Amino acid sequence: EKSENLRSELREGSRRLQALEWQSAEVQTALESFRNELGRFTETNRPTYLASSPSNHQLDKLELRVDNLAKGIQLVVAALKGINSDIGTIKGNVTTVVRNTRFIVEDLPKNCKEVQKRGYNISGIYRIQPELAPRAFMVLCDMSTKEGGWTYIHNRYEGVQDFYLNWHNYKLGFGNLGGEFWLGLEYLHQLTGYEVNELLVELVDMNLKKVYAHYGAFSFLGGAWWYKGCDTSNLNGKYLSGDVSEDYLYQGMYWGEFHGAQYSLFRARMMVRPRHANSPEFFPKSN
Fold this sequence. Notes:
The protein folds into 2 domains: 2-100; 112-286, Gamma Fibrinogen, Chain A, domain 1. Helices cover 39% and strands 20% of the residues. It has 6 helices and 13 strands. The protein has helices spanning 2-44, 56-100, 112-117, 167-172, 185-192, 225-228; strands at residues 124-128, 137-142, 150-156, 174-175, 181-182, 197-204, 210-218, 233-234, 242-243, 254-255, 263-264, 267-274, 285-286. The two termini are 44 Å apart. The mean pLDDT is 81. Keywords: Coiled coil, Disulfide bond. This is Techylectin-5B-like. Pfam families: Fibrinogen_C.
């Protein structure tokens, strides 16, 4: 309803602006006509010493005509000033409306949880705009795991996408939402930097055994947490598929509490959603 009211206000402002611009053009034409008439009058009634002096009746007619032309020009100029003032006011109002509603006209959800609340219960790709985001972007949503409403930030399951990339790549994100990807630190900050979120980590081994690490509070403000704890887990490591030799210890995609650094997992994904009343306590649970 709010978006429709804003659109109606913009349409009405545009209509009034167009009408005033047409009136301004008509007044300009009228003013030019008065000026031409005054010029012709001045030219045809220029004093001449060869002609006889005009009668009192002729002088009265000339004075009346001059007076009418002067009044007409004054009225046209006043009307033109008023119209131009109205045009300036409306343009200012339209600009203000556009500026103030730039991010809310579409009324986009802020995360996958809001997508779910609006009745979209099928996992897939959706367009969102978090509180801190200057523009909308696409995300992958999980609407079924643990009551759904999760926004993917990391997804690996086949080893096609290279995760051994530099800081710039991790800042902006890489991969494909339809496959393996890292969402990006900038988007992660926009998603979680203004409110506390849950973090769900799903891990699957080569025998398809699945476990979760569910963190009750998560918010990203900067840095790279996976480097700080790289001796206990590294879900951005090489995709090595199962047991690894001693030469590749700590190099695979591993989780310390699930097979450890000597085992590279089959699948890993990380997802976030805003914390709510039923969120777990502020510590991870594996199950």
